[in-house]
Design a protein that fits this description.
The protein has about 650 residues and is of the alpha+beta class. Strands 2, 3, 4, 5, 6 and 7 form a 6-stranded antiparallel beta sheet that branches. A hairpin with a 2-residue loop joins strand 2 and strand 3. It starts with a helix and ends in a 10-residue tail after the last helix.
């Protein structure tokens, strides 16, 4: 059966190469039969990679320990759901998942392009298929999940204990959907340059293909933050880890791109800039994939060092040289139709937004690479930790939050002083009220006060946009206010869905600001002893130990009191993977959450005197981070739903030019 997996991988290389060649010929000659043949080759590749991935899943589910990859990442006692997710817990399987998702994007993007077949779609298929070839060859030659051991092991080594968590069923696929998904807008951008069709068609074609990976990449990071919060036990959900930062980079540049293309759609401006942004975004996606697999940085998220690191570097170089070269050659076709008129305009707001996102991306990139560069130059590695990122990123983040509220209130071309006064007065007052309320409640940290004030301002700006729109619609259609508000959102999904996304960002910032008020203590407690943090008193009430086929579970019991009132019980745990040679331990954090704060308790073992060791945190406003993620999801779904006018416009067929 392993031979079938190898056959599927290598035959997929052949069909992908064929799709690239026939797609290039179709784009050049305009022959419909070549286009149809290309589409069939893309479909065949997708089905074969799907079959290969399904085959690997079946090997995990049936304990095929004659395969090196299965024996190294699974075991007989691993629960069935985790055998399913173990497929992407190692290098080989994660690359196959990457290739599978890429094949899916190529297939569905090609199907979507059937309504407007032409050079643009054909050349985009070429770019996606060549990328597919790279990853399939990488899997087949370097990191083959179907490699056999030569014998059948009695049992496997088991899954990395840190990955035995429900979030890991969703977090890696979400991140990969983000990383891989940016291939579609990148491919169409390159196709626009190759075919000289550099108008706004490629942007309209890929709008949803850009929003979805942006959403998946951001959601994947939030899911990863939730996993880190409850599994890693360091008290937070974001630690500026190099691999976390690598995923943040394309999200930052992708966000800049999503805002900047609005100017090109509306005004025909920033054509070169947008091309450069999508090239940078896709390059950073490949860079992030390289960073997790090269062994270049040390991270709990990274895979072991592999020879494919150098191969990725060559691939990155090819992407940069090809993309920059074709952009340079076509630069004369990318002249703007309109001139930039005033910094106090929506265009000005978007430009400043872009510059801030790129500044943030550069700061994160520098922080990730500085230890590597310092070691290469001086021989000693200089660590860049969270204080650097917090110091640099906090003011940038606050400026971006401000622009989230300012941008929608600005007019295109130029905003008059009267308009500024009219539109900014209400949100500004509400923001000041929120800042004053935070001060009255005890907030004294400067950045925190600014953040609370800006959260109020942006919320007021978003609310005023909804109110003004609903009032205008109600006046013209005679609809009741709530119905007018609903109709307004449904008929303008892109705009008002975007406002809901912005409100989700406000809630995220509100939750992030709680980090300024975190408190923690360490306590060694014997039975009946207590520790106090803030308004909480925690009493150690004992422990128990149980064994299951995978772990020894050490569960401790803490009574939680406020004064003399018992609020409940918390059970922080340690899991000992006793079958592993290293007897690895993982934590199961106990969290008592409310809208105001999280009480977060970690059990760390026992001291020489037998006292149970605990680390106790109060983390304010964390719940708002997860609420913000759900609101952001709602806004994204609303913004991405098609409307009737767009379906009608995209439903037309774009013909090939007559072949010469």
């Amino acid at each position: 059966m392993a031979e079938i997996g190898n056959f599927l991988i290598w035959f997929s290389v052949v069909t992908s190469l064929y799709a690239a060649v026939s797609g290039a010929l179709a784009g050049r000659t305009g022959r419909l039969n070549l286009t149809l043949s290309t589409e069939r080759a893309v479909a065949a590749t997708f089905l074969m990679v799907l079959a290969a991935f399904g085959l690997l899943e079946s090997f995990f589910l049936t304990d095929r320990f004659d395969l090196h990859y299965v024996a190294g990442h699974s075991s007989r006692d691993l629960p069935m759901p985790y055998k399913f997710t173990a497929v992407w817990s190692g290098m080989e399987g994660s690359l196959l998942l990457w290739a599978f998702i890429l094949a899916g994007f190529n297939f569905f993007a090609t199907r979507n392009a059937r309504g407007f077949r032409g050079p643009l779609a054909s050349y985009a298929t070429v770019v996606m298929s060549l990328t597919q070839v790279f990853f399939l060859v990488l899997i087949g030659y370097y990191e083959n999940p179907f490699r056999e051991l030569g014998f059948t092991a009695a049992d496997g080594q088991g899954m990395n204990p840190l990955l035995v968590h429900p979030a890991m069923a969703i977090h890696p696929p979400m991140l990969y959907l983000g990383y891989v998904g940016f291939i579609v807008p990148y491919a169409f951008a390159m196709a626009a340059l190759l075919s000289r069709q550099v108008d706004e068609e490629w942007i309209r074609t890929t709008r949803r293909w850009t929003i979805w990976p942006w959403f998946f990449l951001g959601t994947g990071q939030l899911l990863g933050g939730n996993w880190a919060y409850v599994v890693l036990g360091w008290g937070g959900y974001w630690g500026w880890d190099p691999v976390e930062n690598a995923a943040l980079l394309p999200w930052l540049t992708g966000t800049a791109f999503l805002h900047s293309v609005m100017i090109q759609e509306k005004k025909g401006m920033l054509k070169v800039w947008n091309m450069a942004l999508i090239i940078l975004t896709f390059t950073l996606c490949i860079y992030g994939t390289f960073l997790t697999r090269s062994g270049l940085v040390s991270s709990v998220h990274a895979f072991a060092q592999s020879p494919i690191g150098n191969v990725f570097l060559y691939f990155l170089a090819v992407i940069v040289v090809f993309s920059a070269g074709i952009l340079w050659r076509r630069r004369a076709l990318l002249e703007s139709r309109n001139e930039y008129e005033s910094p106090v305009s929506r265009e000005g707001g978007f430009l400043l937004n872009n510059l801030l996102f790129l500044t943030a991306a550069f700061a994160v990139f520098w922080g990730v690479m500085f230890p590597v560069l310092s070691e290469a130059v001086t021989g000693s590695k200089v660590t860049v930790g969270p204080p650097f990122f917090s110091t640099v990123m906090t003011p940038i983040g606050l400026l971006l939050l401000l622009l989230t509220g300012v941008g929608p209130l600005l007019a295109w071309r130029k905003t008059s002083a009267r308009s500024l006064k009219k539109h900014f007065a209400g949100p500004g007052v509400f923001g000041l009220i929120c800042g004053a309320a935070a001060f009255a409640l005890g907030a004294r940290e400067l950045y925190a006060l600014i953040s609370f004030t800006l959260c109020g301002f942006v919320t007021g700006a978003i609310a005023s946009e909804f109110h003004r729109g609903a009032k205008a619609r109600g006046s013209s259609s005679k609809e009741p206010y709530l119905k007018a508000l609903w109709s307004l959102t449904v008929r303008n999904r892109r705009r008002y869905g975007g406002y809901i996304v912005h409100f989700g960002v406000v809630l995220l910032f509100f939750g992030f600001t709680g980090n300024a008020f975190n408190r923690e203590i360490e306590a060694g407690l014997k039975h009946g002893e207590s520790a106090t943090l803030g308004k909480y008193r925690l009493v150690y009430e004992g422990s128990s130990q149980t064994r299951n086929p995978l772990t020894i579970v050490i569960q401790t019991q803490l009574g939680v009191y406020q004064g003399d009132e018992r609020l409940g019980t918390m059970w922080p745990e340690q899991h000992v993977y006793y079958k592993r040679k290293d007897q690895q331990r993982t934590t199961e954090v106990a969290v008592r959450s409310s809208l105001r704060e999280d009480l977060y308790v970690l059990y760390e073992g026992r001291d020489p005197d037998g006292a149970a060791l605990f680390r106790i945190y109060i983390n304010p406003l964390v719940m708002w981070v997860w609420i913000g993620a759900w609101v952001l999801t709602l806004g994204t779904v609303i913004a991405i739903l098609p409307d009737r006018r767009e379906r009608h416009r995209r439903g037309r067929t774009v013909r090939f030019p007559a072949a010469s």
